[in-house]
Every structure is written in structure tokens, then in C-alpha cells.
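Appendix B. One record, verbatim.
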Amino acid sequence: MHELVGALRSYAWGSRTALAQLCGKPVPSAHPEAELWFGAHPADPAHVRIGDHAISLAELIAADPERELGTTATEFGGKLPFLLKILAAEEPLSLQAHPSMTQAEAGFEREDQAKVSLASPLRNYRDKNHKPELIVALDRFEALAGFRDPHRTVELLRVLAVDGLRSYADLLAAQPDSAGLRTLFTTWITLPQHVLATLLPAVLDGCVRYLSRTGPREFAAEARTTLELAEAYPGDAGVIASLLLNRITLEPGQGLFLSAGNLHAYLRGLGVEIMANSDNVLRGGLTPKHVDVPELLRVLDFEPIDLPVVLPEPAGDGSVRYRAPAPEFALRRFDLVAGSAQVPLTTAGPGIVLCTAGTVRLLRNDSALVLSRGGAAWLSAADTDIRAQAVDGEVQLFYACVGTGS
């Protein structure tokens, strides 16, 4: 087992405080800090400290896949199949979805044949992998995810009392299913600019009027989110399109699992995120980055869904697990208190340990590794019988490993 140093990613929507505070660094940071990657994705692998030297996790695995990954090397082509992150969103992320495996393979080959460089900002598919993902909130986490039941969306559009929305509400009311959602989303996300320039301000005025009403306001969170998105991304068609999505709030410790094709946009919050080892993102708006609406429409799943919050379940070993139907990854959480006994962490790697609160000591035979808040460790397949013991404070520890698909 060795210390693992995450790769810091800076995006405009990141936070100048959340990741810096978590990792015990000066606040505010010089630039928005959005993600800390703990994995072996070629775009930005984490680094393993071995003595006084550091080597990228990707290089370490490539040098001896069998030792580092064990049987996982055979199952996943000699690569670590998951990517673990800490995500810190101060502003909304893009309106986006991720492809299925079949879609990713076809898209990657198509862009390769078109000679679109992997480094090009116009590239949609940077690898051949799908990207199911699970995020677990470290503080209150807000998101839009999955298409809302069309009947409820019709209610929302009507209570905003916007003349320009009536025909769209009628359209969806006449076909309250995935086909109706596809038609309405496609219409909105491709609105001519002169039409959008009239409709969007009217919708925002409708949201303001709705929020100023007295009495029950069932869609208050949706209306506020629409106003916030418009402030962050003025004139963006994604603002109106977001009205079709479920508005979700995760409390600390709760999770959200997204499979291929689910349209979503994380709004704000700090969370631990685990996904298949991919960086494939199809964007439809709410971003200065490359937007490819036709390709997004190709991968979207328009089936309305009420995405359930993923609650931690007792795993029987002192930890809790977050159930996710992805063979590439599994995630458990340990909550330890200083002075308590050692807790078995895992019988064998490969895996990544991430400390998000307190200070913990990892033990294997006669060796030990201390992790503070924001610290991580790489456990190879050769690292067996790893134990954890809280050193200081109330320790929160996440353990990521290869999943079972259940």
C-alpha cells in the first residue's frame, strides 16, 4: 500500500474553498478547484508515492498489471476499471449525459476515422468506455437528473402561467410519455435564437411571479433553479430544457446513481464520485465547452424516471455500502472513532482508500500508512489483510474497489 496523490482539475464551475479546506490547503485557492482524480485514466492519472519517488498510477499498473490488479487485469484488459473523484461544484455543471458501451465504442471509432484529435475540444469520445457513475454527498448536494414524469412537468409549465409555454404544455399533455419528452426537449434545445430571446425572459418572469406568490409553492425549488441557471448561463437553451428534469437534493451520506443516457446537471455541493474509467461526456448546454446537440440526442434515454436516492446499506463488516449495478466499481464507507479497535478494511486489493474526515492509520503486517483528511492510498492486488484504525477525530473513510454488478 502506498500514498496516492490525486490529480487536481480546475474548471470554471469549481470551488475556491471546498477542496482546499478538505485537503488542508490555503483558502481561497488561486483558481476554482473542481475535481480531484484518484485513478489511472490517461487524461490525468494520480501518482503513487514509493519512497522518495512518485510514479503515475497508470504507469505503475502498465509495468505489472498482474501484481497491481490481480484477476482484474484479465477481466478489464489490464486496466483499472474505475475512476474515483472528489467533486466540488460552486456553480452548475453542464447539461450532459454519458453513452452506453456500444455508443462509446462506435463514437470513438467514428471520431478516430474523422481524425479528430484526442486533445481537440471538439472531441466527444476520448475513450471506448461507458460511464455509469455514483456520487455520494459530503455536504448538501443539489442536482437535476432524469426526465420528470410528464404529467408533473405539465403541472409545472401551467403554474408558471407563461403564454409562450401553453402550446408546449399542451403538446406534452397530449403525449405524456418518452416520445413526447423527446419532441419537447428537441424543440427547446434547438430553438432559433430569436425565439429563445423572447421565450426565455418570459419564463424567467413567470418563475419570479410564481415565487412571489403566497401559499403553497410545490415547484419552488424548480423555479429558483431556473433563475439561477439563467444567471449563470444567460440566453442558454439549456435553461428552459432543465424544466423537464427531476430536481434532487442529497443530504450528506446519500447517493445518486446515473446509468447511460440519463440527462443530468450537478448544481452545487461536495461529493465523492466513482464511475467507470471514462471521460466521455455529451453536452447540450449550460457550459462554455463544446456542445453537440445531435450527438446528445443520439444517446439520451427519454424514459421518465424518478431516480431513487441511494442510501447506504450495512455491509456486515462495520462499513456501509452504496449499491450500484456496475461491474466496474463498488463503494463502501467506514465511520471510525479515535480509540476504537482496528477494523478489517479489505482482504485484498486492488482498491483506493480515501479519507474525508479525521486521521486514519492503515496497517498491513508491520507496515503502516497514515492518511489525513483529503489523503488517499493505493492498494494493489498484492496488498492483503489491510486494517484501519482511527488516529484522530471522527474518521470517514471511503473504499473503492472493483464491483460485482449488483
